[in-house]
């Protein structure tokens, strides 16, 4: 790499005379001795990064997910393009940022679920009840995935953040129901009476929590302002997750709780 003065870089004859090395006979080997120097159409700007020369290709994607597009593009490049030795292709920009964020979320999400379980265990001092409440996590996941599919959105970083948020809301619904079931059992009700009474009396607060959280996000679904492409996937996941977790909490959780209680109860 050379940096030439303006008087040289604009004069092709001076560029031809650039010395490379001195030969054994004492004469200079010049650039024109080893290369043909001429002016032809080409790149108006030669980019360098980390000491490497590169060409930039930009594109805007619409109508499909970024990850799936890059995967298909890589497969086609591998099958149809043979790069010369020393050449390689890298994908950067939004895709690179998405990959970096998803790697972090792959660590953050399990940690968040683990922390929820630890807090539940501290509260109930029961692995059984803590695991039963954690059933709301897959309950919420089902609704979030279905909502993404129906709405046409793809799994992205904002959607993953929405799953983290809905996990907390879904767990709260499970805590409300299981806590009341335990209270009824402590008061002397049998398991059938405790579950029936808890489900009947806790349905209102559970529905109020779910409705309030969902309605607060509905306006985001109908906005097209700047930033809505980030906010909408979060709202879709949260609303879908709340709907499925609320329904399954009131229907399946009491059934599973009764089955597990009878299976493990020894008193």
Percent helix, as a range, is 55-70%
Radius of gyration: 32 Å
In total, the number of strands is 4
In DSSP terms (H or I, runs of 4 or more residues), the helix count works out at 11
What is the annotated CATH architecture of the domain at 100-264? Answer: Up-down Bundle
Q: Cα distance, first to last residue?
A: 83 Å
Strands of the widest sheet, in order across it, are 1-2
Mean pLDDT equals 83
Stretches where pLDDT falls below 50 for ≥5 residues? none
Report on this structure.
With 267 residues, the protein is mostly helical. The chain has a domain of 165 residues: Multidrug efflux transporter AcrB transmembrane fold, CATH 1.20.1640. Helices cover 67% and strands 5% of the residues. A two-stranded antiparallel sheet has the order 1-2. The longest helix is centred in the last third of the chain and has 37 residues. The protein is elongated. The mean pLDDT is 83.
